[in-house]
Amino acid sequence: MWTKKSENETHGSPMKEFSSTTKIAPGAIGEYNEKDELYDPFEHRDKKNSNSDIGALAHLLKSSLGTGILAMPNAIKNGGLIFGGLGTIIIGILCAHCVHILVKSSHVLCRRMKTPKMTYAETAQAAFASGPRSVRPFANFMKGTVDTALCATYIGGACVYVVFVATSVKQVAEFYTPGTTIDIRLYIVALVPALILLAQVRNLKYLVPFSFLANVFIVVGLAITLYYIFTDLKPISTVKYVSNVENLPIFFATVIFAIEGIGVVMPVENSMKKPHHFLGCPSVLNITMTIVVTLYAIVGIFGYVRYGAATESIVTLNLDVSLPVAQAAKLLIALAILFTYGLQFFVPLEIMSNAIRPRFSHKFAGIGETIFRVFMVFLTVIIAIAIPNLEPFISLVGAVFFSFLGICIPAVVETISCWECHLGTAKWRLIKNILLASFSMFALVTGSYVSLVEIIKIYS
């Protein structure tokens, strides 16, 4: 609790409404102090509903191994075999680095603010509130910006998941009902009951079984997909080594969408029993990103070599639907993505639920939140019905949201956090983060433009 004196002293500070769950020590706002190192945020965390390292690894893997990995052959098609393969590895390293600096900055800011843990938005707010005086008035604005972007990002991702599941089921169903064509929008509507149930899960701990099953299903489905890819590989001379320049924005946007899982990072790290295992070498983050980037590069490169110019937006759509094993792969991966919907939707629902919870009386809080979560499910369904085409949808979400949240904001947060005395020799961190932010803006502008042009073409 703050004393009356400290309340007066901090009146008008951008940190006065920092978070309903974050407690800030008196005098925490300001420049770095050596005494900050004496506070260990990990010792003050609630371990009651914490996850093990394996549970955290499962969540991170599942947040990255979604529809994105199946879109990688199409991404490589838009980048070219050599450019796309090398670009995937480089973007993977950049994304892993951005997650690292975000979590590292959060740990530093937790010590500086004397609070056990922070969300992504609270980390951005704390960075500005404790940074140079000129940026402190923007602290609350940054928190709102990150929260809004997170909600929009993962709602967009959830919409992509819905479209993917419906597309996969439709393809198999139509094989068994020749001559019958049902609009994909009806398949999307049929998913509503399952989506509502998954959206009602309110603790990451209870999503672990779904993540585990999803990981098993997607591994089996990917194994089958890779079998079909490797059994009939075409010569690499049949594909482009470097694609046309106008296709490169789609490549960047799709890869960023595929690899990024930035919104799940802070909830997972905050829920770990041993959060110091998240960073370092080896660590939960490094193991996860190594697995993810390796799988993405393999699936993307060889999937493109196998199907060439005929590569679909999602590679499982290229599998021969008349083969029972291929049908099993399509349905297993569709189930995996369906089970991931709860994890994908966890971040925006938590953010928005925390905002609306105080508006309900204690008596109707549970019912109010349940109704709100059902409403949000219907919102994703409506958006999916409006844009039931995967390729431009995936690239648009990746370009607009994941590039901004996954690369730009972590670079800004680290720069502000280190501004006083930790920018390094010749201010190398500042230069590095300027380059990261510039790349992010390039992907955002070019990727969103090309994606919107494709969407307009589809509906024109």
TrEMBL record:
User: Which residue numbers delimit the Amino acid transporter transmembrane domain?
Assistant: 56-451
Q: Where in the cell is it found?
A: Membrane
Compositional bias, Basic and acidic residues, is annotated for 1-10
Q: Does the keyword Transmembrane apply?
A: yes
Q: What Gene Ontology cellular-component terms does the record carry?
A: vacuolar membrane
Return the InterPro entries for the record: AA_transpt_TM
Report keywords, A-Z. Membrane, Transmembrane, Transmembrane helix
Provide an example Pfam family for this protein: Aa_trans
Q: What is its main location?
A: membrane
Gene Ontology MF terms: L-amino acid transmembrane transporter activity
Membrane-spanning residues: 54-76, 82-103, 146-164, 184-201, 208-230, 250-268, 280-305, 325-349, 370-387, 393-413, 434-459
Annotated membrane topology is: Multi-pass membrane protein
- What segment(s) does the record annotate as region Disordered? 1-29
Name recorded for this polypeptide: Amino acid transporter transmembrane domain-containing protein
Lineage of producing organism: Eukaryota, Metazoa, Ecdysozoa, Arthropoda, Hexapoda
